[in-house]
């Protein structure tokens, strides 16, 4: 009875972690929009909110890991759950670190880049949202997993193409910008790309787990 209750609690904790990941990406997306549009108070609120989520998910991850090891639960799937949890934690961590860097470094974005950069952020956010859905599917309806995995790969490729276009525009067309300013913009564009890359790593793991479930 104790074991069954603990398993249910771990599943509930994982579900709550996914909820937090969903919330985190929404705050991240809104935070960058508020930064680019000069909404300082709203942006500061986004920083506070994403910091609270990061602190929360760090505690949640430790709690789930503790339960898995302390009670020796779900032995056959424990490594898989820990690996998924690691990728979820990495995604939340990157969303948090990326947004906080805007507050620390105060990058200057020319207005002509705003639309493309916000589209880049939107694509990355969609990839994370699909990862969250795919992880839920892994536990609830694995038959829907393949389509979502392919969608994550699609968004990652779109992110890469748009990021390259933005960097090319910065270095080839913005003649009035100093090299240091161009590098700064490239740096922040690269950080967005890294979130999509982490989403793909989660998709790769889910793909492997889907094969393991079939055999």
UniProtKB/TrEMBL annotation:
InterPro entries: DUF47, PhoU-like_sf, Put_Phosphate_transp_reg. It comes from the Bacteria. It holds the Pfam family PhoU_div. Belongs to the UPF0111 family. This is Phosphate transport regulator (Distant homolog of PhoU).
């Amino acid at each position: 009875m104790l074991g069954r209750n603990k398993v249910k609690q771990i599943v509930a904790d994982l579900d709550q972690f996914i909820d937090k990941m969903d919330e985190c990406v929404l705050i991240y997306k809104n935070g960058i929009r508020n930064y680019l549009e000069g909404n300082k108070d709203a942006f500061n609120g986004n920083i506070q909110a994403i910091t609270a989520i990061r602190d929360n998910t760090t505690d949640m991850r430790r709690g789930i890991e503790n339960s898995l090891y302390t009670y020796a639960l779900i032995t056959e799937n424990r490594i898989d759950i820990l690996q998924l949890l690691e990728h979820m934690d990495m995604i939340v961590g990157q969303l948090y670190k990326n947004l906080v860097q805007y507050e620390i470094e105060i990058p200057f974005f020319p207005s002509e880049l705003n639309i493309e950069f916000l589209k880049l952020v939107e694509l990355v956010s969609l990839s994370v949202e699909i990862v969250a859905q795919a992880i839920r599917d892994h536990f609830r309806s694995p038959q829907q997993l393949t389509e979502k995995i392919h969608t994550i790969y699609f968004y990652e490729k779109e992110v890469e193409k748009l990021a390259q276009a933005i960097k090319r525009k910065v270095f080839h067309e913005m003649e009035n910008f100093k090299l240091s300013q161009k590098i700064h913009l490239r740096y922040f564009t690269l950080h967005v790309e890294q979130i999509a890359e982490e989403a793909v790593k989660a998709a790769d793991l889910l793909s492997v787990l889907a094969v393991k479930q079939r055999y």
